[in-house]
Amino acid sequence: MAQDGQVEHFDQSVDRLDARLLLLLTDEPRLGVLECSRRLGVARGTVQARLDRLTARGVLTGFPPAVDLAAMGYGLTAFAVLEIAQGRRREVVDGLAAIGEVCEVHATTGQGDLFARVVARSNADLQRVIDEIVDVPGVRRLSSSIALSTPVPPRVRPLLERIT
Amino acid sequence: MAQDGQVEHFDQSVDRLDARLLLLLTDEPRLGVLECSRRLGVARGTVQARLDRLTARGVLTGFPPAVDLAAMGYGLTAFAVLEIAQGRRREVVDGLAAIGEVCEVHATTGQGDLFARVVARSNADLQRVIDEIVDVPGVRRLSSSIALSTPVPPRVRPLLERIT
DNA sequence: TGTTCGGCTGGTCAGTTTGTACAGTGGTTC
DNA sequence: GAACCACTGTACAAACTGACCAGCCGAACA
C-alpha cells in the first residue's frame, strides 16, 4: 500500500491487492504462494504477508475442500422454514444438528423462526428427512420447498471485484 | 479397496478412505498429499490417486478460499423470497446476478419462485440492496427475513462421517 | 525539514514436497 | 490359472516453502 499508492477502500481490511489475490485463488485455488506472486507481479514475501494478514483478520478462513453433494448421491436440495415452540430454539437446533442431511441452519426474523437447507438422495429420502425434522421436539410447523435449480451458485466474486 | 477389504457403501463413488481423506482435508485444508498419506496411514501414491479420482468424478470440485464476508464488512445476511412475473425468470435471474450483494439464487417450488441469499453492510445498506432487487424488471413481490444467527454453519461433515 | 515507521523488493538458504515412474504384492474376476 | 486392479515402497529431479536479510520508498509526525 505504501508503495503502490492505491486508493484505500473505505473498509481498510481488504485492499486492491488483497482482493486480486483472493480472486486469483478463487479461480485457481491450488496455486502456491510463489505462483501467486508471479501472476500478481509482486514479491513472494508480499503475497505471503498478505495471506497471513487476511488470515489474521479473519477474512480468509481457509481453503476447505469443496465437495459436490450431488456427485455423492445427494442430488436433492430443499429449504425448510420452521416454526418452533417458544423458548425451545436451542433444543430444536441441537436436534437439527444431529441430522446429517441438514446442511445449514439460520435463525431468522419473520414468520419462520428457523431456516434450514437440507439435502437428500431422492424424493422418498427427502420425505424421510423431513419427517425426521418434524419429529424434533419443539418443532411446531415445517414448510419446505425444493430447489429446482441454482441459477446463481454461492459466490463472493462480485464483492471482491468491486474492490479491484 | 481391494486390499483393505472394507465394506462398500451403497454409493460406490466415495468409499471409506475417500471419506476419511475428505474429512482430513476439511479439518486441515492446507495439508499436502504427503502429510495426508502419513495421517491416513497409506502410501502417498494412494492419496494422490484418490484425489485424482474424486476430482474426476466431480465429488471434489476444488479448494476455494473461504472468505468471511462479515470480516469484510458485510455483517448482515438476509434471505429473500421473490415472486416473479410469468415467464421472466431468466431475465430476473440475470438482473439478480448483476447485484454483487446477491450471493446465491435458487429456483424453488412453493409460493416464491426464487430464493436468494443477500448480504449487506448495515440495515440501511440492506434496504438499498432490497430496493435494487425489487427494481429488477419482472420482480413482482419480495419478502425478506434477516438472519439473526447461524446455529449450524454450512457443513458436509456429518454426511462424510456416515461413510467412515 | 528531518526522522521514524511500515510495507515492498529482490536475494539467499536449507528443508520439504511434488510429479512421475517403476517393480512388487495380494485380492478379485472370468 | 491368468488377467486385472489397487495399494505399497522406492527413487529422482524439479519445484516450492518458510525464514531471513539489506535496501528502498512513501507516509506520518515532530
TrEMBL record, chains A, B:
Domain (HTH asnC-type): residue spans on this chain: 14-75
UniProt cross-references to SUPFAM superfamilies, sorted A to Z: Dimeric alpha+beta barrel, Winged helix' DNA-binding domain
Protein origin, superkingdom: Bacteria
Pfam families: AsnC_trans_reg, HTH_24
Cross-referenced PROSITE patterns: HTH_ASNC_2
UniProt keyword annotation of Glycoprotein present: no
Keywords from the named record: DNA-binding, Transcription, Transcription regulation
Gene Ontology CC terms: cytosol
GO molecular function, one term: sequence-specific DNA binding
GO biological process, one term: response to amino acid
Keyword Transcription regulation: yes
Signal peptide positions (record): none
Protein name: AsnC family transcriptional regulator
Lineage of origin: Bacteria, Bacillati, Actinomycetota, Actinomycetes, Pseudonocardiales
Gene name linked to the record: asnC
